Amino acid sequence: MSAFLLKGVAPLGGEPTDVRIADGVVAALGTGLAADDETTVIDGTGLVLLPGLVDLHTHLREPGREDAETVETGTRAAALGGYTAVHAMANTSPVADTAGVVEQVWRLGRDAGWADVYPVGAVTVNLEGERLAELGAMAASAARVRVFSDDGRCVADPVVMRRALEYVKAFDGVVAQHAQEPRLTENAQMHEGVVSAELGLAGWPAVAEEAIVARDVLLAEHVGSRLHVLHVSTAGSVEIVRWAKARGIDVTAEVTPHHLLLTDESARGYDPVYKVNPPLRTEADVEAVRAGLADGTIDTVGTDHAPHPSEDKDCEWAAAAFGMTGLETALSVVQATMVDTGRMTWADVARVMSGTPARIGRVDAEHGRPIAIGEPANLVLVDPAARRVVDPKAQATKSVNSPYRGMELPGAVVATFLRGRPTVLDGALVKGKVLA
Amino acid sequence: MRHLLSAKDLSHDEAVLILDTAAQMAATQAREIKKLPTLRGRTVVNLFFEDSTRTRISFETAAKRLSADVLNFSAKGSSVSKGESLKDTAQTLQAMGADAVVVRHQSSGAPHRLAYAGWIDCPVVNAGDGTHQHPTQSLLDAFTIRRHLAGGTGDLAGLHVAIVGDVLHSRVARSNVDLLTTLGARVTLVAPPTLLPVGVEAWPAAISYHLDEALADGPDAVMMLRVQRERMSSAGGGFFPSGQEYSRLYGLDQRRLDTLADHAIVMHPGPMNRGLEISADAADSPRSVVVEQVANGVAVRMAVLYLLLAGAQAPAVADDEMKVLA
């Protein structure tokens, strides 16, 4: 296995140093490290070194919607975005609600080799919210599922949610809730407020999220389970999570890049590329989720990368699918909204995009590790000074539904290493099959 | 003006120009020969994804009176019901030579997509989209109000219009709030709180939950909105308890009619639910201008098609023709 020497990089944005990667691990750290003939040297001047990013919230669409994304294309996008691990959501076709399907997805991830793929198991059979799926079988499968979610749908029945929270304790699992009260959001198209009133699009009220978050933190407290709240989008949800944490409830929360940057104003052109669930909220909500992420109320940034084929977006708003791609832009959006605004350091970015999500997903033996000698070399090298205009057609994801199309964003992934092997070098995928 | 998608897009002067042009069109409609040669050789497509016989016929009549060829395309029984997309339908019609597309769609924003998604490049007229906008309805309403209450010229400065009923689901209400206020009128929306959208407080209109109080304020025009009966059922959203209660609290009946000022007019975009939002007495009273609204709809739509298709592209010709029209 070839070795790499990263010269003058800044681990977590700190003091520049040299980092030697060999045999799949961080082999040496310190200034003035020498390279031998076998070692590829990368000039890291001005570059930040982070642990490989970990996404708890990716839709890889395979099996079933290979026209939108496959494990292969989705993990290529992940590698280009700086990710070394992604959790593949369960709303595939068939649904990942059995050991068979999660093992299939896990195997497809191993075969692709661009990033470690950890399947998320469905909480209920066929995501129908009625009967628990065989959570134990998925946990015990080769895929070793620890994160369970009906994402795309809410586990709305309070008894089913309670049972799921209790049941997964047996194998240290976590229920990741898509908080959306279904009756309050029938036919909902966008955030309910001033803009929806004017556009005549059916509203998705903030309370439909907050009511479920409030219920779930109380359920988690009652049964002593851990809860992960997906894509927190409202100021009210941030307040509830803050209250729950102060009370000692074992809850973690996620925000997506798009909820950190975009608002419901983008719906004004009726372009469904901005149609997403939960919907883009107001300026005040954006400020609240940024503040929540900065003060630790929100624990992680998850992409909710949701590719869709063009025919599902090239239509009228109500007919369009919910969701936007995000793997290849997440780090840049976090840099723009949190780092360049002075609200977070690169160490904080490593925490919310790598360390904490790895711990929540129980993959922290491999991922989200400190940058230290002997640790697995799952790393990403970032150029914070770069600027780029987002071109969805140039991305590795199979779909082009990026809301950042044409937008100039800061930062670029220069290289990604998965267990010491580069998946990305010079900002491009490494040719040929990468063996994990 | 390239498209007519929303009453909100119209400036004061553009709106007055459309109303003035409509007045000239209306004058020609009093003649024995109603047909004008203005749009000869042009093709107007009526693209209707939602049933609306009245609006379609009104647009069809308007186009034909201007000598345009008219293609009617309704989604029912067409390839749309076989799953063809809005994009493909629009491109097909443009390939057949449409010079303008008049679109009615159940999805808010569909006309906006047709105009700006890059699928087609001809003028788009919104004939009603979801619960968003119905700009030609608001123009014909403004035209009717101007005729009765403002001497038939200029704007609507100083007038007070009450709009009563299901504002939440009404594209007519949204268009009228935008256009009537642009023209200087004061608007009061009257509805049960369940039938007002969250966010309505940002609209340039006063809000009242009580029809009797709103009528006591002396509106010059009262516009009753259609209330769909299914809205009261729990499957329909459960917006109000019963038709009877709605009529008692928000229906325009003889008693309420009698409280209006002598000059005040009663309007309704149609089709009316007699006995629900409006009693037969009110609908048929001398104050009611409902039938006239329909007639004015043709003149207003003639004006819109004329300004979109002839106005911008051939101003000199347009001036000549306007002289002929006048």
Strand content of chain B: 5-15%
Largest interface: A-B, 24 and 28 residues
Evaluate the radius of gyration of chain A. 21 Å
Q: What's the order of the H and E elements of chain B? A: HEHEHEHEHEHEEHEHHEHHH
Average pLDDT over all residues of chain A: 97
Content-based structural category of chain A? alpha/beta
Helix/strand structural class of chain B: alpha/beta
CATH structural class of the largest domain in chain B = Alpha Beta
| Total discrete domains of chain B | 2
CATH topology of the largest domain in chain B: Rossmann fold
Helix/strand order of chain A, N-terminal first:
EEEEEEHEHEHEHEEHEHEHEHHEHHEEEE
* Largest beta-sheet characterization of chain A: 9 strands, mixed
Write up this protein.
With about 425 residues, chain A is α/β, with parallel strands linked by helices. Chain A folds into two domains: about 5-50 and about 375-430, Urease, subunit C, domain 1; about 55-360, Metal-dependent hydrolases (TIM Barrel). Chain A contains eleven helices and 19 strands. In chain A, the strands form four sheets. In chain A, strands 1, 2, 3, 4, 5, 16, 17, 18 and 19 form a nine-stranded mixed β-sheet that branches. A five-stranded parallel β-sheet of chain A has the order 9-10-13-14-15. In chain A, strands 6-7-8 form a three-stranded parallel β-sheet. In chain A, strand 18 and strand 19 (about 430) form a beta hairpin. The termini of chain A are close together. The mean pLDDT of chain A is about 95. With about 325 residues, chain B is α/β, with parallel strands linked by helices. Chain B has two domains: about 5-135 and about 295-325, Rossmann fold (3-Layer(aba) Sandwich); about 135-290, 3-Layer(aba) Sandwich (Rossmann fold), CATH 3.40.50. Helix content of chain B is about 40%, strand content about 15%. Chain B has twelve helices and nine strands. Chain B has helices at about 10-30, 55-65, 85-95, 110-115, 135-150, 170-180, 210-215, 245-250, 255-260, 280-285, 290-310, 315-325; strands at about 45-50, 70-75, 100-105, 125-130, 160-165, 185-190, 205-210, 220-225, 265. In chain B, the strands form two sheets. Chain B has a five-stranded parallel β-sheet with strand order 7-6-5-8-9. Chain B has a four-stranded parallel β-sheet with strand order 2-1-3-4, with helices on both faces. In chain B, helix 1 packs across helix 5 (about 135-150), helix 2 (about 55-65) crosses helix 11 and helix 5 packs across helix 6 (about 170-180). The longest helix of chain B is centred in the C-terminal third of the chain and has 22 residues, at about 290-310. Classes of the chains: A alpha/beta (about 425), B alpha/beta (about 325).
